[in-house]
Automatic annotation (TrEMBL):
Protein name in UniProt: Ig-like domain-containing protein
Record organism: Paragonimus westermani
Superkingdom to which the source organism belongs: Eukaryota
Residue ranges of domain Ig-like in the record: 16-80
Transmembrane portions of the chain: none
Pfam families hit by this protein: I-set
Length: 80
């Protein structure tokens, strides 16, 4: 697993990678705000072999639903 974050940098959690890791951050923010009821669009551009699997986390918990996932972008619906 590879973890990427503005404060964390780039870390691997399963040992050395057989392929060079590449990342291109488009936007870094320690905090994003969205009004309740509005959507938040997050985008991730990655390359790798094998093709990377993308997971999103909030407060160290993987975001599962409500989540609309495209190939490399997702929309989180803001609800309470």
């Amino acid at each position: 697993m590879v973890l990427i974050g503005p404060k964390r940098g780039l870390q691997t959690t399963d040992g050395p990678s057989a392929y060079p890791l590449q990342m291109r951050p488009l936007y870094h923010a320690d905090q994003l705000e969205v009004d309740e009821g509005n959507d938040l669009m997050l985008t991730c551009q990655v390359r790798g072999r094998p093709t990377p699997l993308i997971s999103w986390y909030h407060n160290h918990t993987e975001i599962k639903t409500p989540w609309k996932l495209g190939s490399r972008a997702g929309v989180i619906q803001s609800t309470r």
